[in-house]
Amino acid sequence: MLLYPYLQLESVTGMDEIKSYIERLLDSGCSRMILSKAGPGAEYKKITVEEKPAYYQIEKLTEKQAFHENLQREELAEKLNGWLSQSYRQLNGFGGGYESVLLISKKGRVTFKQKRSALALKKDGEHNRKKRYLLGEGEIIEPLVDMGIFTKEGKIVPSMYDKFRQINRFIEMIEDYVKTLSEKKLNIIDFGCGKSYLTFILYYYLTEKKNFEIRMVGLDLKADVIEKCNQAALKYGYHGLHFQQGDIHGYQAPFDVDMVVSLHACDTATDFALYNAICWNAKMIFSVPCCQHELNGQMESEDLSLLTRYGIIQERFAALLTDSIRANLLEYCGYKTQVLEFVDLSHTPKNLLIRGIKKKSFDREYREKILSETLRSMEEFHVRPMLYELLEKEDG
Per the confidence metrics, is the pTM higher than 0.90? Predict the structure, then answer.
């Protein structure tokens, strides 16, 4: 029984808000969801979602059968958005002390309700529900202590909880791939490592939590930063982690590269990082681009001039076009590619993370389609991105 009045009641027109409500539900501790009111074309009568320690379990019910699959958070959010946009008109969520309802009318009007629930509060209290992070409170993780996120006793500093969650989200994005590997050795290059907070955390997680043998190089242009990072690596006892001063363009790796990480390499530096990863045939790529200025200075379009008429619109669209082309070129080069939202440690607006994993085989028809799609977009806006130029030169 619901004993509390509504805390929120929101109603909007349009489907764009569905995604933000889904993210709100997941952030608020919603651990069980039920999708119902299936439309005529829905494949399943009802879908339920249960949060597990390391994933979300999905149960899809037909009249006679039940189908199951396990998803990570970003995959779940994408699935929920698709189901609610196309096939289902109601989602009920439970957890975090709330009961939530997301409703979609036949005319597409979206309504979100959320109530405090005495039953949910009691259940959460009885089971002491707590988000299980890949990096957990109580562990003595020296880089997190030095960053001021953990106390010396391994407790989360309350004001740093958001950063703690962001670090775990980054590790979860890596975990999705490394958990499938049977070989327990990885060679990693981190381009534009800067002060290397996430570099140290990634090294710790892979060696201490996943028992990988790691050889890892962080590359940056600033000599003083490199010196401090090497001192920190010695302090932590991270013997497989070394830092070098150098430029991404033309960098020669000291080993066969399995993973390339590039977080906030500025403008075309991201293109050189992706190009190196492709040339090295790296199995995994994790790139967060920033300062995508290159195409902004080139863009013009006769048929879609409204996207280039207003400065701020052109700037934002240029950044999205840049990363869309990068993702497509990775697909063309044989990578299964996703573009995900990523929040960095400085609480800046959400960036995009390009995540690619090398496929075992090539689909010639798909590659031709991807390349044609990319070339048409380049032609429409009269742009020649750096990554395309590098790959074209390589093909000769």
Answer: no
